[in-house]
Amino acid sequence: MSKKEALQRLHERNHDICTCELKKTATHPVFGEGNPESEIVFIGEAPGKREDLESKPFVGSSGKFLTEMLTTIDMKREDVYITNTVKYRPPDNRDPLPEEKEECKDWLYEELRYIKPALIVFLGRHAMNTFFPDLKISDIHGKLIEKTFTDFPDTTHFLALYHPAAALYNGSMRETLIKDFKKIPKILQKIKTAKI
Known about the structure:
Elements: H1 3-17, H2 22-25, E1 33-34, E2 40-44, H3 49-54, H4 61-72, E3 81-84, H5 98-115, E4 119-123, H6 125-131, H7 137-140, E5 144-146, E6 157-161, H8 164-168, H9 171-181, H10 184-195
Parallel strand pairs: 2-3, 2-4, 4-6
Antiparallel strand pairs: 1-3, 5-6
């Protein structure tokens, strides 16, 4: 069985046992997608309307923007892994509630333990606050955070970025996000050098 097939089974098993209330109102689960061997995992907040219909993460306008930003660092979606804190769309695209994020947390952690990325990139404050509840994205965006979590000890490097959806309609935030995004290759290189 390939790593991709094993990851698909992981998702299917978690979908079967997940008791999140969002499961009742979503059209489809939206599993993480991409390269299971990736050094980078991008974590968003929750699926939106398009994602819910197509059962894929980041396929709407913010997903298109994410794809464009990846090209600026010579990467494609197929090179990275993209997921969300919750795997089901909240009604009317509202923010997922703390208990809904908690219901999907083990699933997300299992995903991260399986992939073992060198760097986790949070797309937006909600994704960041799932791991770092006391941090403000306005203070920490674009800065490397180092911390060890016992739940997934292989990944100790984190980067918080503004969410592409928020940056689409705010010119200065868009410039900041693009500037922060372009730091990813240097940060990855720094992580690799530290491991040698």
